[in-house]
Amino acid sequence: MHYNYLSDGTNLTPQDVALIARSHNPGNGKPFSSVSMSPDAQGRVNRSRVVVDRIVSQGEVVYGITTGFGAFKDRVIPHEDLAQLQVNLILSQCVGVGPPFPAEVVRAMMLCRAHTLSLGYSGIRLETLQLLYDMLNAGIHPLIPEQGSVGASGDLAPLSHMALSMLGLGQSEYQGNFISSADALHNAGLEPCVLGPKEGLALSNGTSLMSALLSLALVDAAMLCDTADVVGAMTLEALQGVPAAFDPRIHAARGQQGQIASAALIRALTEGSNLLDWGSDPDNNSGPNPKSTKVQDAYSLRCMPQVHGPARDTVAYVNNILTIEINGANDNPLVFPDDDDLPDIMVTSNDQSKILSGGNFHGAPVSIASDFLGIAVTQLANISERRQARLVDTAAHGGLLPAFLIEHGGLNSGFMMVQYTSAALASENKSLAHPASVDTIPTSANIEDHVSMGPIAGRHARAIIANTTRILALEAMMAAQALDFRMRAQPVLGHSPIQARMGNGTRAAYHLIRQHVPFLEKDVNFQPHIAAMESLVLNGALANIAKPLANTHPLPV
Fold first, then answer.
1. If pLDDT is split at 50, 70 and 90, which confidence band does 555 have?
2. SS (H, E, C) 380-402
3. What is the C-alpha separation between 183 and 158, in angstroms, rounded?
4. Beta bridge partners of residue 67, listed in sequence order
5. How many Å apart are CA 405 and CA 479, to the nearest integer?
6. How far is the C-alpha of 420 from the C-alpha of 426, rounded, in Å?
7. What's the CA gap between 286 and 497, in Å, rounded?
8. Are 167 and 90 in contact (CB under 8 A)?
9. pLDDT given for residue 447 in this prediction
10. Residue 35, beta-bridge partner list
11. Which residues 6+ apart lie within 8 Å of 379 measured at CB?
12. By C-alpha distance, which of 460, 477, 452, 276 is closest to 392?
C-alpha cells in the first residue's frame, strides 16, 4: 500500500517518521511512500526567504548569513563570498566517521529535517527544500557516517553529509548500491542544488538525526512493551504462577497507569488458563489445586506489571517530548517574517530584528528522553532474563519442568546456553544504559561549551532495543518449550482430571511460535530457530496478539 504524507510543519508523529523511514524496498530502493509540502508550508518558506534576501541586499550583519560560524561569529563575510560561505560550511562539517547509518535512519533524518524546515523559520529557499523531499521520494539516501555529532549546535556532521549529497558531492545509496551522489541524482531525474545565503546553515543546524534515532527507537519500544506482556504471560503459565498478583484491586490501589495497563493485559492473555496456580480460590473456573502450597511468586513473575508498566509510561512521556520536537523549529538563527511574532521592544524598521539567534539546536530534550527510554527498555530485558533463568532451573520451579527444558538431560544440554546469551545481552544493556546526556565537552574554542550527546544517546537506545528484542525472542522460545511440557502433564492440577488448557492469548502466541519454531526433542543448532523467533518479535507478530486484548496501547495505532 502506498502511503502519502502531506507535511505542513506541525502534524508529524514518531509513528509517521518510522513508517516513512521504513517504506522502501532495499532491493530496488523504491519507496512505497511519498512526502510533499502543503501550500501553507510553501507560503511560510517563501515569506521567511524574503527576509533573508533583503538582509543580504542591504548588507546587514546577521550571524550565519553575513558572518562566519561558531568561533568565527564576528567575522563579516564580503557579499561576493556569501554563497561560497554556505558551501564551505557544509564541506568543513563533513567529518563523520564510522560505518554508515542504515537507510531507515537516513530516511528518518531527511524527513525530520525537511519537516522542520517547512515551518518557515529557517530562511531556506523553496527549491532547495523541495530537493530534499524529492530525494526522499526517489529513494536517494546520502551516506551518513554514524559518529561525529555531539548534538549541541545541531547534528552538524550528519546533516552536512546529507547536504553534501544535495550538492551532488559524496556518495548516496540508490537502488541498493552506494554510487556518487551526482549519478544518483541524475538517475532519478534530479539536479543538484546551488546553495544561497543561510541555506547551508539551515540544512545542517538542528536535532534531526537524534530525533530520527529516537523516533525509530520509540516505535520499537512501544512494540516491545506489548511483546513483554505476551511473553511474560506465557512464562507465568509455564511456571504455574499465582494469578492473584494481577488482581485489578492491587494495581488500582497504587494508581500507576502503565502498571494497571500491563496487569490488565496479562489477565486478558491468561484468561481461560488452568495452568496457573489458583490455589483454593473459589472464584476461578478451573477447579481447585489441592497440592498447591504457593503463596506468591518470585519478583520476576509477581512484579511484571510493576516493571513492564513503567516502560509503558516512559514510552508515553517520550512520545510527547518527541512529537513536540519534530514539529518545532530547532536551528539557529530563526527567521520571523511577521513583526507580530516579536516583542514590541524588538520591532525596528529593518529586517535584522526579524532574525533571532538562540539555542534551539541544543539536543537536551531529545538526549534525556533517549536515555530515559533506554533505561526503561533495559528493565524489560533484565526481568525477562530472570524469568528465563527460572525456566531452566529445577531448584527455582521445584521440578515442574525438566532441567534446562530438555528430555534426557546430560546427554542433551537443552536451553542451558540460551539463557547465557540472554545474560550476555542483558549485561551489555546495563553498560549502554549509562546516560549519555550527563556528559558534555566544550567545542568551537569553548563557544559551544555545553553539548547534549543526543546522537550517542539515540544510538545507545536503539542498541538496547535490539538486544531486548533478542532477549524476549529467547524467552518466547523457552516459554513455548516449557508450555509443551506442561500440556503433556496429566493430571495438570494436583488430583484434578481437568485437561490442560492455556489462556486465550497465550494459546494464540504459542501456536504462532510453533508455526516457525518446533518443540525441541534433543540438542540442535539453535541459531536458525533464534533468528526465526527474533523475526516474530521484530515484525510485531507477537505484540499484535495483545492489541485486541489491551485496554490501552503505548502509542496510538
1. low
2. HHHHHHHHHHHHHCHHHHCCCCC
3. 21
4. 76
5. 9
6. 10
7. 11
8. yes
9. 74
10. 5
11. 307, 310, 311
12. 477
Query: Helix (H, G, I), strand (E, B), or coil: what is residue 273?
Result: coil
Residue 260: its H or E element: helix 257-270
> Cα–Cα distance between 27 and 357 in angstroms, integer?
44
3-7 and 33-37 beta bridge pairing: parallel
pLDDT at 349 over 60: no
Query: How many C-beta neighbours within 10 Å does residue 456 have?
Result: 23
The 3-state DSSP class for residue 423 equals helix
Task: Answer whether 0.90 is exceeded by the pTM.
Answer: yes
Cell of 527: 541459531
Residue 9 burial (CB < 10 Å; 0-12/13-18/19+)? buried
Please give the grid coordinates belonging to residue 110.
531527511
Catalytic annotation, pick one of 3, 5, 63, 317: 63
Residue 348 pLDDT:
46
Q: DSSP letter for 243, please.
A: G
Round to whole Å and give the CA distance between 40 and 44: 6
Q: Is the peptide bond before 333 cis (omega within 30 degrees of 0)?
A: yes
Q: Is 63 a catalytic residue?
A: yes
Residue type, 373: L
Backbone φ and ψ of 19, nearest 5°: -65, -45
CA distance 74 to 61: 9
**Largest Cα span, the chain:** 93
pLDDT of residue 557: 41
